[in-house]
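QA checklist item 7 of 12: single-chain prediction sanity check.
[x] sequence parsed
[x] length recorded as 330
[x] structure emitted
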Amino acid sequence: MSGPAPAGGSGQLPEDVRDWFARRTWQPVPWSASELFDAKRGRTVSVVLPALNEEETVAGVVGAVLAAGPLVDEVVVMDGGCTDRTAERAVAAGAKVVALSEVLPGLEPLPGKGEVLWRSLAATSGDLVVFVDADLVEVGPEVVVGLLGPLLTEPGVQLVKGFYRRPLRLDSVEQRSGGGRVTELMARPLLARFAPQLSGVVQPLGGEYAARRDLLTRLPFAGGYGVEVALLMDTVQLAGLDAIGQVDLGVRKHRNRDLADLGVMASEILAVVLDRAGVDPAPLPVELVQFAESSPTEAASGWHPQVRHVERAGRAPIGSVLPDHGGPRS
């Protein structure tokens, strides 16, 4: 474990954030799968892969998770409405696939990633739950080993975020960095303003993280892409900053989204942070107006408005909605 990098510019991290970073940041991953298996002491681990049409990558991610060996007790791919061969390829790779309609069938699903993660708590049984996005490429078992390390070796840690260098792929060219655009342009400035105690978190929006089930069942799950930053803010509110740790997972490569999709994502994150900070001035959902230019082959030339729906519907803690799914498991 090492301390923070030297501050750039003329400022530096606040003392409390600097102290947290030094104690709760591990870089690189210092544990092996065998060491952590010995530290499990009867606890069980569920790995959840939320997926929506990830047939090209899901098998590789499942294989990387299973390569952690007996450290992992179950691998569940949560099918968020796939229309391709994601489910087939996940099963062939060794995962269990669960569709949203199969979980809590009496409850109508809400749209968005947050709903998929929330329902995964009712579809899994592990004392520790690891979330890994299904669109990763060039991933290995260190993603699971790294995320579980603090939970199995540091009693005070309840939620662990992964962080990484994020290349940006543009057509056939890969830039060394530049991914995580919504993090830098939206999430980080918002946290600096409304939750500065989280300013030491390297990847607040990253989809690779792990937590104790008894924490997750007490947290509300925001809808859409605001779920990750909401879990961070709610964990600080419930258990304090020291309950959060972060681990360097190396490089994260995944499918980069287009700018219009990132606009919707940023809108959802804006709404969630303002809501958690108690300063949201307007109710949601809202309609986000974006503009696209006609292609040369289209009859109507010029720029045209396109309206995108921005949703923020979320869920109360699953432990309060369905008590059988809450609390620690022995």
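[x] summary fact logged: The radius of gyration is 20 Å.
[ ] second reviewer sign-off
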